[in-house]
Amino acid sequence: MKAKEKYDHIGKSIHNVNAKAKVTGRAKYCSDMEFPGMLYGKAKRSPYAHARIISIDTSKAESLPGVKTVIVGGEETCPFRYGAGVGDEFVLAREKALFVGDPVAAVAAESEEIAQEAVDLIEVEYEELPAVFDGDEAFKRNPPAILHENLKSYQTLRSVPPRFDEKRPNVFNYFRIRRNNAESAFKEADLVFENRFETAMIHHVQMESHCGIASVDDTGRLVVWGTSSKPYGMHRDIAESRGLPLSAVRVIIPTHVGGSFGGRDSKAEQIAASLALAQKGYPKRPVKVKFTREEHLSTTTTRAHYIVDIKTGVKKDGTIMANEMRLLLVGGAYAGTGYLTARNAAFGPAANYKIPNFSLDAYGVYTNQRMAGAFRGFGNAESLWGMESQMDIIAEALDIDPLKLRLKNCIDEGDLNAFGETMHSVGAKECLHAAAEAIEWGKKTEGKAPHLKRGKGIALGNKYSIVPSASAAIIKVHPDGLVELRTSTVDLGQGSSTIFSQMIAEQFKIPISKVRVLNPDTDITPFDLGTASSRSTFNMGNAIIKACRDAKKQLFELAAKELEAAENDLETADSKVFVKGSPERGIHIKDLFIPMVIGGYTLKEGAEIIGKATYYLPGVMPDPETGASEKPAAFYMFVAQTAEVEVDTQTGKIRVLKMATANDCGKAINPMMVEGQQDGGVLSMGIGSTLLEEVITDNGVMLNPQLADYKIPTTLDCPDLDDYKSIIIETAHRDGPWGAKGVGESTMVSTAPAIANALYDAIGIRFYDIPITPEKVLRAIKGKF
Amino acid sequence: METLGVTVNGEHVESLIDPKTTLQNFLHDTLGLIGTKEGCGSGMCGCCTVLVDGKAVKSCLILALQVRGKTVLTIEGLAQGETLDPLQTAFIENGALQCGYCTPGMVMSGKALLEENPNPSEQEIRQALSGNLCRCTGYDKIVKAVLSASEK
Questions:
Q1: Are residues B45 and B7 in the same domain?
Q2: According to the 3-state scheme, what is the secondary structure of A454-523?
Q3: Interval A346-392: pLDDT, tens
Q4: Closest chain A residue to B77, measured at CA
Q5: Is residue B81 included in any domain, yes or no?
Q6: Is there a contact between B126 and A715 if contact means CB atoms under 8 Å apart?
Q7: Which residues pair with A353 in a beta bridge?
Q8: Predicted complex ipTM exceeds 0.90
Q9: What stretch of H or E contains B57?
Q10: CA–CA distance, A572 with A17 (Å, rounded to integer)
Q11: Which of B41, B98, B107 faces A495 most closely, judged by CB atoms?
């Protein structure tokens, strides 16, 4: 029996603290913000996938009435390259444009219409160069095009350095794992399976487009508002690309941002910053750059096309002996966060099963397309698409139930993963059992007509969270007892402000209404690595707990004198400090402050009650040759998903009849919000990426840059309420706040294989590429039924 | 420039506007009703849904002048002071929002449905909301919210 939980706020489905602002239309996003005298910026974009910029004539644009500033790439606009791990990108392209949509110039004008007109008046002469779009071609030793001839001279990140490939000029990162000897294990295996799986390029489709506003204040300092999920990453990029000291830039992210899913690395803020700085003299007017939906869909970061080659050796009883993989992230023209995605796509396959012999090579390769980087799952939905489809191929060949094959091999507490790390907090088996039960695994149902074929599928997944990692939190206790959190975690919709409020309310024993979370602002809120990798609950949560303790210690020091009690004997609740067990021996927080003549409250020393803390998790960098590491990740979230589909063999249409997801999040601080993450991951992005979504291009031009053509799921694409089960599994992590890990990214890493395995069960056809569209299904079943 | 007279959230407004102004621009930029969000500007996402004479309309698809003399209800006009509409409360209680960018349009489409059909089935709700895109929630809790509001 589980002990009865003794928490007031933790584990409770408290309403989103921003919900009222959002349902009343009061919530102000970056795209809603306006400033007096604001100008509107637009980018001039390359029509070629790869072209040398011969000349740019801006004279006509400059003479258009209402145009304030026109900028082009060059020393003045962007002296230095920047990037998440590889400094390969300028704010505006210089010398060469590397993809269709690469910004080469920009305009700030009195209105968006004038800015657009001016952009159209800019004349650019290009010399078109051979381009490469195909991942295998780009990967070659002699590729048809080399994007970055001087790659080796670029700045790279010291803490997690990218690894280039001497012989392959387009490779921007290479990562490998060698555990024992896969090659010889294949010889001992009873059966060996070798397949290639692919995933299409897809887009995050955040409902709020990317937006940036930049202004230069009266001291010449640059202030930038944006939609970034990584305020300090953007802060660094903006400063370093201009050679400015960090302190010369201030980045502010509004309380509300319209979704991220990993895809907030945009140039909107950078272009706005350049346009604000480039204005001659003073005052420099603020500039807003909001990408249109078409710009958003056709030029901003994506989930890469992935090529996954997998070779698996098994014993007849289903024991996996060896696994060999090559993961190829077909990246964009700039590495962006893709440099890390390329590496970290290895983590899912490395930690799903006990595999004694494991060999993996993961690459990221430049092609002449827009940047491809972080996307919910960070490469692992793609690598596990291969691994989990492969598992069903093996299960069928060995005549073993797919659930049993997974249960037999799945990793467990204390097992070693492919890094040689000892696993902790592993809910894989519980997830598998729960997801299977929710869909009545093993029970076949029939469609209402002979052409409606039904089947069920299952898949297992996991998602690590990044190291090295650091989050800092500042807690201020106001004289009226309100507790304020200063954090640079961005509430992108996932609900971090609510989760943190619950944690603080629990620490101070106060109602949620007595907690306030400030929006990220590099002048006010301390460092955080970024709202990514499902890391906020765990990392920022730990920082918050430490900062709360620090603030409470200060309160207790002050109150101890007033109450003539020992600090250690004190506790706080309801904005009072009192002796444990004797609430009558207490003092209200406001009475620890001294009301002052003229106004305000003060402390005799120490200025304010400010608790502060950093949660720093360095991890252990994997060995460059073998990948060996005892701590390559902060934690692992597990997930199992099951699907029942119905295929119309006359039209090829697939309906997801039922879906269940069971996610091991460690501990649900807010179960309703954990469900919300699971729902969105499975039903919107999971089903969408499996059945609907694909960025279709021709010579680098996106052919479906509108929401009418790039289809994300609607209410009609999702299973009915009774047919969808969102299950929370809690396998506490010893280092997690209240045992919590995370959830956001684990939610779609096994959706595609679960659906495709169900499809195979229905019609006996294996699909190796997603999305699985009705056209593909029809082509495949032609003549079969 | 043209004069536009229209009732917005119960208040008559008169405004001199550029005839090219869409209703979404007029509400969001001229009147400062920022709840009417622009998601795509081409009628494909539903973020800018408002009610015109009680019917759900994508406000980026019509010109402001087309609502001359009509009654427009935006998300800001749904609550009575601090008292929320039952549908707004249902969205909060069911966790039917995340990033919130689609929420105003989603609530307005739900409102239009409930005005016309106070007790819709799940399928009727899914149909009515099928023109409103949401990337965060997978719609499950949104459909639940509309169902629960209809039962009140």
A1: yes
A2: EEEEEEEEEEEEECCEEEEEEEEECCCCCEEEECCCCCCCCCHHHHHHHHHHHHHCCCHHHEEECCCECC
A3: 999 999 999 999 999 999 999 999 999 999 999 999 999 999 999 99
A4: A24
A5: no
A6: yes
A7: A410
A8: yes
A9: strand B55-58
A10: 23
A11: B98
